[in-house]
Amino acid sequence: MAALLLLSLLLLLPLLLLKLHLWPQLHWLAADLAFTVRALRCKRALRARALAAAAADPESPEGGCSLAWRLAQLARQRPAHTFLIHGARRFSYAEAERESNRAARAFLRARGWDRGPGGGGGGAGSAADAAVGNGATLAECGRDGAARGGGATAPLAPGATVALLLPASPEFLWLWFGLAKAGLCAAFVPTALRRGPLLHCLRSCGARALVLAPELLESLEPDLPALRAMGLHLWAVGPETQATGIGDLLAQASAEVDGPVPGYLSAPQSIMDTCLYIFTSGTTGLPKAARISHLKILQCQGFYQLCGVHQDDVIYLTLPLYHMSGSLLGIVGCLGIGATVVLKSKFSAGQFWEDCQQHGVTVFQYIGELCRYLVNQPPNKAEHDHKIRLAVGSGLRADTWERFVRRFGPLQVLETYGLTEGNVATFNYTGQRGAVGRASWLYKHIFPFSLIRYDVTTGEPIRDAQGHCMATSPGEPGLLVAPVSQQSPFLGYAGVPELAQGKLLKDVFRPGDVFFNTGDLLVCDDQGFLRFHDRTGDTFRWKGENVATTEVAEVLEALDFLQEVNVYGVTVPGHEGRAGMAALVLRPPNSLDLVQLYAHISENLPPYSRPRFLRLQESLATTETFKQQKVRMANEGFDPSALSDPLYVLDQAEGAYLPLTPARYSALLAGDLRV
């Protein structure tokens, strides 16, 4: 009888849950549970690694920082397994350990440290001693000594910052790992920066040295006097330079022995200590140097484990290493599972499938528009004969997602969300198209976050009468925030505290609490799926209504003759708010059909969301991580005398897009043309 009663209750439970509006979310309970178990196992494994490192012999390499002991551990456990493939070059984990040991010893000489094997004895170590002498710096190995104009450079202090201005390459990794082992802080500088922005980045992170690629020297020539005046150690990675005061770092490293470096040199006093600076690309102002702690390095070792990647997988990485996605998620994530990474210095959509076929790639890490570039390529025989089972990344639009899987599948797409300086990340482990993650109570118990109501007009969260923020309802866009704690800290940026202004919200749900403000608007549907809505700065207000650029872009991208779309708001003299403008790239061999475009937006967008201006371009302006340049485009405006691209304006009276001629532009400014 009791069994029958229990069975009846179990049969009635789904109906009860449906009535309580809980069933849509519980439909995904199995997937939520599976990911929760994986996340707990990952946390436990990382904690065990940290405790083992803390208990290790300080003289052993496994007693150092998280990067040092993980690489030493892999060199011991999987010495012959291939870690890195770059072109025709392959490196095992044992070779990676030895190369980074040489780099570490070279940097240690710049610190004035001269102890242990190769530090001052015979053999390879004495060759380096002959070149620089005891305690000398590598910058002094240049023909004319230390950098001219800035005086003699002092030895690097423990914890000093060394900036890397290098493309993605094995040398980038050996130097980064070597800096970590030597107890020095790395700063990853975007390779396109020159003049003022470059000097700003170096000053903001307090760099005491700069390592650069020889192929960049010609474009950096005008900057060299300012760099020397800063008193920086200047090193090049290779001998292809005769510039005064710039030493050949690779030659110095090759003269060192490859024996282990004592762990105590890199062991942090606190796991919260900064060990790396990564510059946020941002869309406004100069880059900011985000502080990366030893804790974050440790956490990123679990990235691929959370994604379900295994040590026998081969990962294809074509993202810049000076950004978090390439370095922390791609490289450190690979170290976390002991897998193989195929590293590309530049992305090539035409070469992608041949590379994957040649190297047996099973996992592809994407960002931004890489998948869109691939689906826009002509058919390729190799695209159907690959082993890719998983694509992991962020920024994949739902329409491109569908085209990508339909054309190149079967494969799984795992969309994620995160920020370089942030303390929250989401994973769409179910494969639900268009979603960036889940907001199940299980997930939020492990990785807590909230969506709160936000006023795009004031740029502030909406608070109740008690001054507290309010959570959003399903389907309502909200600001993503995450509580700041010891386990999920926000370290901010190098420089003045004002740089972090607005990133922390206080008294969010109760007096005294502190939350990190991501600056992103997300929507949670009734099934618990999170979808990206817009950046707070990208949502603009027109005719008293809020317009999300992503929603307008998705409508325009449904037109077959458009390949790429960038939507942003522009200031119109005499009008409140910002009017919508869309930069368009045509899909070859199509032409622009303004009649069809107007009919399409009229049917699918409310009047206030319809772009008032169109700008036809050959290609869209993007950042080096393929993010669209919205702020720059908005600043360029719609003046036909200042822009060479074809421009069009929405004429409300005519009900059509017309060429934006100087005459129409003047009429618009005079108020005679209604927008």
3D architecture notes:
This protein has 675 residues and is α/β, with parallel strands linked by helices. It is 32% helix and 21% strand. It contains 22 helices and 30 strands. It has an eight-stranded mixed β-sheet with strand order 2-1-11-10-12-13-14-15. Strands 7-6-5-3-4-8-9 form a seven-stranded mixed β-sheet, with helices on both faces. Strands 16, 17, 20, 21, 22 and 23 form a six-stranded antiparallel β-sheet that branches. Helix 4 runs antiparallel to helix 5 and helix 5 crosses helix 7. It starts with a helix and ends in a 5-residue tail after the last helix. The relative contact order is 0.08. Mean pLDDT is 87; it is low at 16-20 and 117-151.
